[in-house]
Amino acid sequence: MEAIKMAEMWATMGSTLASIMFLWAIIRQYCPVEVRRFFEKYTHRVMGYLYPYIRISFHEFLGERLRRSEAYSAVEAYLSANTSKSAKRLKAEMGKDCSNLVLTMNEYERVTDEFEGVTVWWVSSKVVSPASSMSNYPGQEKRLYKLKFHKKYREVVTGSYLEHVIREGKEIRIRNRQRKLYTNGTGYKWPSYKHSMWSHIVFEHPATFDTLAMEPEKKQEIIEDLLTFSKSKDFYARIGKAWKRGYLLYGPPGTGKSTMIAAMANFLGYDVYDLELTAVKDNTELRKLLIETTSKSIIVIEDIDCSLDFTGKRKKKGEKFSDDENEKLNAEAGRKEAKEEGSSSNKVTLSGLLNFIDGIWSASGGERLIMFTTNYVEKLDPALIRRGRMDKHIQLSYCSFEGFKVLAKNYLKLETHPLFHTIQTLIGEIKITPADVAENLMPKSTVDDAEKCLSRLIEALKEAKEAEAAIIEAEKLKQSASPVKEDGGFCDGDRETAEPENQCQR
């Protein structure tokens, strides 16, 4: 009996649905479009009073140029990290600028999220536009995310929750992105659409602070400084200063300046812009390059003392000129600068570089480190490296015993060895760069063991010590053989010729 009643009920329901569909087909065919739109308009309005939920859509592409929506990308990243564990149907994608496989919700999948006690629902959907009757291709698919929540939580969702989703989604995208190493070159014009003044490759340098040959205290000081900078957006805004920081890395060649930059980039997850100043035509082009750099990046100018021949002259410390001499020097500097600016091969001036570092244009983008490296810090203009431009000066000097232990662990996997005591004594008596130490610790064949590499380093340290002692002895003999006047000056025929300027070394 129950089965008969159930069958009759289903038959009645099917008949009713069929009648409704028939009537709807008749209405669509014979009812004018204006009448149908009128009824649809007021039907949605009535449903709005009765339906307690609100929907927000995030479409993948918006606008005439069909550029991917930043909001859609942020929502996608947020959901992939926060709701992919609860979704049952996922799709795996490799983004254009992403180094990891990203799992996102499949079409029509629904997940739940909670924020400050408010429950919301996300649905991944798509809309298929009808195909043209004149084309054999299927209709275009447009993907979107739909957010659904109760109307009583409108202020919470449209305010703090959506702000939270966008902010966290952008941070997730930055963490997952494929970091890049950029460089500029000669012959670039002002960038047109889809054309940049920078070219890039994937940044894959393996250097980290763990593998950096440096004293632990100094290393920790740099790490804390970087962390403080990366978390100080509100602080910089409060004090009215652009969110950037300058670093000057100086020291002899081979002390690890470039490796330090790579370790900083890996630690913070920043892109690197290697700016070649000799390829920049003038100050205007330098500003254009700055505009194209992004936030969360390191702008590097290596060997800054060799990169530019700045126009104008500055008086050295302790050097005094008369008023007439000063006027003459200023006039000559002005003519030289005007001539260079008027020529076809204009170059970057000191003023242009200073504006690049901390001028008005330097505030564009935010969260950037500007780094100079040099082997000869005394050659640099004081205005270029003063605090406020190069905020932190980091001296990378010769290898210490603490630095050697880091290299021994990296190259030989040694924490201690009987030969360490001999090396500690020798390395404290002479100057040797981390690059030279690393070269001696590098196994040269498959039969080289740790003891052989350490012995090779000891021999190199002894040779360097003997060479240094020979140089000191030669200097003493030279000084004792030089005839000196009573007033302490050299005789006219025995003046030492000026030493040639040091050549720039990388």
From TrEMBL:
Domain of life the protein comes from: Eukaryota
Protein name listed in UniProt: Uncharacterized protein
Species this chain originates from: Bauhinia variegata
